Request: fold
Amino acid sequence: MLNQLSETLVPPVVEAIELIGVGIITAGAAVTLALFLLSLLRRDDAAEATARFRSSLGRAILVGLEFLVAADIINTVVIEMNLENVASLALIVLIRTLLSFSLEAEIEGRWPWQRAKAERSS
Reply:
């Protein structure tokens, strides 16, 4: 009974979480692009506007990725637990984690584990 209930309820929940993640990335990209173009129209400093654009877009992608990872985890826990599914989840999480780390480094200009050291020296 519980297995049947989870197979019925979880797929739409996972799909909703995935749509939220994609929506965050899409909306973040649209808003970020609009603000960037507005900055250029106001003749703001192009280098500063570009840096803000990249930072804001990276943050939107990071938040969206968190939702996509959550959906993958929920989906894997609910479907049949076997080595292939767990390995697939591990690979997806690894790839998305590496992408998150590289985006964070791009946004902050340092690796996430360097943040504490930078804050102590400030």
Q: What stands out?
A: The radius of gyration is 19 Å. Residues 2-121 form one domain.
